[in-house]
Amino acid sequence: MIGRPYCRTWRRTGSSLPPTESAALMLAAPSPFPYAVTVAYLAVGLLARTVLKTRPSAARAVTRASGAMMIVIGGFLLAERLVG
Question: What is the mean pLDDT of the segment spanning 33-55?
């Protein structure tokens, strides 16, 4: 493998390309997926702001529910890290 130094870190991850070549490949052939996700999240955010601005009690409920879900997800991730 002339011109490609051996790097143990990318070999351990199972990648067939080193990180610099993987990044170059992603930039050379961009996917439309990130743009579609950006548009979807922007639409959801604008709609949520419009709806929740008129209903403060619903906004508080959504805030509390999302906070509780984030705590539960964080607890699962922490437990997985400690067990695994």
Answer: 87
